[in-house]
Write a structure and sequence with these properties.
Shape: globular
Structural class: alpha+beta
Number of strands: 2
Order of helices and strands: HEEHHH
Radius of gyration: 14 Å
Number of domains: 1
Strand order of the largest sheet: 1-2
Distance between the termini: 46 Å
CATH class: Alpha Beta
Strand content: 15-25%
Length: 91
């Protein structure tokens, strides 16, 4: 697979709060595994947000990696917004 094709593959990252109440990467993957992450989220009524630039950035990290503070701030803001969207949809 060429580098160009590699970059075009579908990718997905699942985010959540870990045991330490900090945002963390729960799952990440490409291709069929990315599709499975998205399907599982939708199956459990978890909001799926399409943010290719953020996913691309997060795909460079491993789930066990420390998230830089600046990235944590962005993720916290995103997770808060997503929770508000979910709350509004349930009303």
């Amino acid at each position: 697979m060429s580098e160009k094709d590699w970059d075009k593959r579908r990718s997905a990252v699942a985010l959540g709060y870990g045991h330490n109440k900090q945002p963390e990467i729960i799952a990440q993957g490409y291709g069929e595994f990315a599709e499975r992450i998205i399907q599982e989220a939708e199956k459990h009524d978890i909001f799926v947000h399409d943010a290719p630039e953020l996913v691309s950035l997060l795909m460079h990290l491993n789930p066990d990696d420390y998230l830089p503070d600046a990235l944590k701030e962005v993720l916290v803001e995103l997770l808060i917004w997503l929770q508000e969207v979910a709350d509004n949809q349930s009303k």
